[in-house]
Amino acid sequence: YKTGDLARYLPDGNIEFLGRIDHQVKIRGFRIELGEVESVLGQHPAVSEALVMAREDVPGEKRLVAYVVPSQERAPTISDLRSFLKTKLPNYMVPSVFMMLEALPLTPNGKVDRRALPVPDQGYPELDEPFVAPGTRVEEELAQIWRKVLGVERVGIHDNFFDLGGHSLLATQVISLVRQAFHLDLPLRSLFEAPTVAGLAESIETVLRLGPGLEGPPIVPVSRDGDLFLSFAQQRLWFLDQLVPGSIAYNISEAVRLTGPLNVVALEQSLTEILRRQEILRTTFGAIDGKPFQTISPAKPFILPVTDLQHFPETEREAEARRQATEEARQSFDLAKGPLFRAILLRLGEEDHVFLFIMHHVVSDGWSMGVFFRELAALYEAFSSGKPSPLAELPIQYADFAYWQRQWLQGEVLETQLSYWKKQLQGVPVLQLPTDRPRPAVQTFHGASQSLVLPRSLAEALKRLSRQEGVTLFMTLLAAFKTLLCRYTGQEDIVVGTPMAGRNRVEIEPLIGFFINTLALRTDLSGDSSFRELLRRVREVTLGAYAHQDLPLEKLVEELQPERDLSRTPLFQVFFNMLNIESYRLELCGLAVEPLLLSEPDSKFDLTFYASEKNEEVHLNLVYNADLFDTATTTRMLGCFQNLLDDIVDKPEERISSLLLWSGTEKEKLISAFNQDFD
Q: What is the domain-level CATH number for residue 528?
């Protein structure tokens, strides 16, 4: 008889009760113990009783709802309850909706009657601004766009886009949908300067009154007869592959552990369908007289190789799976012969598998991984049930985009973009980071990484500062990163590379392909300004770059022709990337899916800082060139970055030269080490 109690054995043989299985839910990939949320909510002095449950009143939209019985006549405010819970729980455990009740409904035997609990209003988060419905056609259209992008049911005209969960990537999607709806090109800056429906609607109405916007031509299918163009980004990677044949620096791989009854046939069918609908995964790159072109192979069934590891002792299987997956992930691609997509399945047990797939960057990017995961999930669920594909046919393919880009990015459009970047990057300096070893004559990609999780209190303080200054968390972290580089090098002219998804048109959002572009963000740190002033400078530089994001870095390097140096990348040597973790989570019906880390990443730059928000914490990952830096050096660097962030949130008006980099203990150790070396 299964009681439904959840428990675990302790080392001393005792059993620890953890809760009820039926009271544990999974929302947005997070497992949540409802009893824990109820327990913390019940600690609020104004709460008499509390019940928390996961509701799915709209199919596919599961959310936490808290039912609260106040302990006094005056009920606590929702903002009070939300703030109270955020001090004790991660944000993913804070209910989306709070409902006040006089009493919890009971069944005849005295238990809570969950079926009698009222259904809450759909999806509108409690914000400081009262809800005001759209009053004009433009406002209604914009509110609909925001609802779609942000995944909420209701948007008021005074709600702040960033308070609703928006960030730079989602802002780009909003601008794409605005282009489609109103046939005008609105700069991304508009949303940052007017982050409400009412404010953005006013900007749109102003542009409409002045005349039609400068909307680019639509992307349409082109003939597959004859040679097909490469996009600018593809051509750059093809050129690098000619310089260093067999390099694995641009392999993109992902390995996941699948636990549960895997339907291998359905998985293979799903991969076949993805390769059929996404031409880019069937593409190879040849050349005639040194000029590259792309060729699309006909679709055919994909055969998923399965390697059975069950003959290994059970204790050795995981290690062997990691070894084989790592070996496969580090196999190079031949761009001319292909294929440029590979996948394998390793069987550790009847219900235990490792699924690995690898693509070359020339046919994929970070956004594409999200597309691949979503299509794989939808197709696997359908094919496992004997149903046809639920995915609509794609009206265009990557080859159509590559042709469109070549046709559009010329003449006045090209000159406008080029003139901005030439002015921004004239006389760009080389960042002279102090290294532990001399720089090799030819750049290497041998990478290693160090990670750090910022405390939740610091993460919240950084987000609060960002809201106060009208910037994104990305901009705040980037300004801090540039401060760190300034302090490390003594240079005041800092250039950092950062990626843009390149998906600023609606029609290319569902495509797999190499759309990502890199922006070179150059900031003047002279004058020993306050951090607050530096943040304003970073905001202006970032928004200016967003407005001119269509010029591929490859085209910019070609035009600027910086002095050739095989030991480092042109224009910038450090990279900063703010990741949106939730977009790239793979879920397959009936299976537990966990990512499997294989090996240290390659390092395309001297330093790459990755930042991501997860469980209300900020996770930092520093990938560094292991031929230049020691582990101890990068560990200290991460520690200095955290010290810097702590000081920034306490004293944003402090001059950047005075912000704390070393703690007292660290400073003493450095002085002691220096004195020993001197002696």
A: 3.30.559.30
